[in-house]
Amino acid sequence: MPHHLPPLNALRVFEVTARAGSFTEAAKELNLTHGAVSRQIQRLEAALGQTLFRKEGQRMVATVHAKAFAREISAAFDHIGDAARRYGRAATSKVIRINAPATFAMRWLIPRLAAFRERQPGTEVRVSTALSSDPMFQGGFDLSIRRAPGDQTQFEVMPLFAETSTVIASPTLLAKHRPRRPADLLKTVLLSTETRPGDWEAWLAAAGCGDLRPLQQLRFDHFFVTLQAVVDGMGMGIGTFPTLSSDERLGRIARVFPELEIPGGTYFALLPLDSDKPKHLLEFLKWLLECAAQDP
Predict the structure, then answer these.
(1) Are 86 and 95 in contact (CB under 8 A)?
(2) How many CB atoms lie within 10 A of CB 111?
(3) Residue 137's pLDDT is what?
C-alpha cells in the first residue's frame, strides 16, 4: 500500500516550529526566513485540512491539536534518525531495541541490565514497554518479549520461562498480620488487576477456598500498579515468579503461602525473521536465555 504522507519538508519545519515555540526561533534554527517558515506551515495546514497555529498578540501559538501532532512527528523523526545511524554505511554504534511488557521490563529485565553492561560495555540496550496482552508491535524493535508466542510465521519464537503464581504481601504487612491458612484471607484486603482477570479465583480454587469472599477488594488497571500497592502495604495480591524474584530478594515483597503455587503464563522472546541479526544482538539473546535458565 502506498504511504499517503504530508509534504515532508513542511513536516520538518512544523516540528521545529512547534518545538521552538515561535516562527522567528524556528527560522533561526532552520536558517530560513520568517516568510519561508510561514509558507511551509500553510502548506502543511492545507494538506491536513486543519489549522495548526493561532495568533495570540504578536505571536503564532501552536494549538493543542498541533502540539500532540508535533510530539508524534518528533518521535517519528527520532526513529528515522536512529535507523539511519544503525543502518548507515558509517554506523559503528551497537544498539539493541527491546519491546517488552511493562511489568517484565521493570521487575525482571531492567534489574539485570547492569550485569549485561558489564559483560558487553559497548552495547546500548533501549527498552520500550507495552501491555503484556497487546498483540500489536508498534514502532521499531530488534527483539520483543510477550506472554504469548505470537505470529510464528513472522517471528523466531524462543521460550524464556514459565511463571508460577502465589499470594504476595509486603513484609511490613505480614509482620502485623500473617495468615496461617488460605481461609484467613477472608479478613484481608485483596488487590487485583483488570488486565489479569481470574488470578485470585484460580489461586483460591487451587487452595480449596473457591467460595471465599474477602471483606474488601481493590482493583487496579495494570499489574505494576497493583504491585506498588502490595509493596505499600495496602493489601495482598497475586504475584508471579520468577518475574518478581528481584523484588523478593530485595525484601520488597514476600510469598505468603510459598507452598501453594499454581502454573502461570510463559514469556517468549520473539525475533523478526526478516530482520538483521548482528553479533551484538545474538550475544544479548544468548545472555537473556542464560538469565532465564538460571532464575529460580
Answers:
(1) yes
(2) 14
(3) 53
Residue 140 has phi, psi (to 5 degrees) of -90, 145
Residue 172 is predicted with a pLDDT of 95
2.40.50.140, 1.10.10.10, 3.30.920.30, 1.20.1250.20: which CATH number matches 8-87? Answer: 1.10.10.10
Work out whether strand 262-272 and strand 143-146 pair parallel, antiparallel, or are unpaired.
antiparallel
Identical fold for domains 8-87 and 163-264, yes or no, is no
One DSSP character per residue, 236-288 reads BEEEEETTTHHHHHTTS-EESSTT--EEEEEEEEEEETTS---HHHHHHHHHH
DSSP letter string, 145-173: EESS---TTTEEEEEEEEEEEEEEE-HHH
Per-residue pLDDT tens over the stretch 173-203 = 999 989 999 999 988 999 999 989 999 999 9
Domain ranges of the chain: 8-87, 94-162+266-294, 163-264
Cα-Cα end-to-end distance for the chain: 47
Q: Residue 7 carries which side chain, given as an amino acid letter?
A: P
- The CATH architecture assigned to 94-162+266-294 reads 3-Layer(aba) Sandwich (3.40)
Task: Indicate if the alpha-carbon torsion angle 285, 290, 292, 293 is positive or negative.
Answer: positive
| Backbone φ, ψ for residue 236 (5° rounding) | -115, 145
CATH classification (class only), 163-264: alpha beta
Beta bridge partners of 37: none
Radius of gyration of the chain (CA): 25
C-alpha cell at position 243: 518475574
pTM: 0.67
The backbone region for 251, taken as left when phi is positive above 0, alpha when psi lies in -120 to 50, beta otherwise, is left
Q: Is 10 helix (H, G, I), strand (E, B) or coil?
A: helix
In this structure, are residues 53 and 64 in contact, taking their beta carbons and an 8 Å threshold? Answer: no
Q: How far apart are CA 103 and CA 82, in angstroms?
A: 26
